[in-house]
Amino acid sequence: MAAATTLATASPIPEGPEPAWAPVDFEALSEDEVVDLLLRRLRKLIALGVEPGQALVEATRLDVALP
Length: 67
What we know:
Elements: H1 23-27, H2 31-47, H3 52-59
Helix pairs in contact: 2-3
């Protein structure tokens, strides 16, 4: 995997639920799309008041939809 050379820009936290992902759909994403997806889920969980360490764990559970 290549090292990141630029900082990711923060995308706004989307309104509405974050869908669950099937393994086959997740595997089809590019590396940048995966990073965006995980950051979006992490930010959403933190905005919902989840403790950051737990939010990191929960963000990676892609088979679970977020409120």
